[in-house]
Amino acid sequence: DTFGALYVDVMAYRLEIFNRWGEKLFTSTDPNLGWDGSFKGEVAQDDLYTYRLRFTLNSGKEGFRVGRVLLLK
The whole model's pTM is what? Predict the structure, then answer.
């Protein structure tokens, strides 16, 4: 399973995942590529992670979202 956004008509997309200390674990500029819960080739520990998502739709509308995702294996 992966965590990511479901957008079909995007011109620009950037998803970032951070741990509780602010260390960036994952970045994707491809809306089809979500976070699989790993970091440096290892499965990340069960925890609450922060995501930051920036996107621009083909219509020109820009968006920004921040939230949390709970990783449980």
Answer: 0.91
